[in-house]
Description:
The protein is of the alpha+beta class.
Amino acid sequence: MSGLVMPEPALAHSKGLYATEAEARERAKQIGCKAVHENNGRWMPCADERELHQQLRQQ
Length: 59
């Protein structure tokens, strides 16, 4: 499927889902977030997905 473009939220998810809280905390520090949150059994950097998307857009 060449030419497939992932929408920004999907891209954020591919960069932001971690198996452990520790991995999410490390990534949160790297992108400027102070918190992490759980999403369907996986961990994500930042307090919520809105903050995660904002931080990723700044990079």
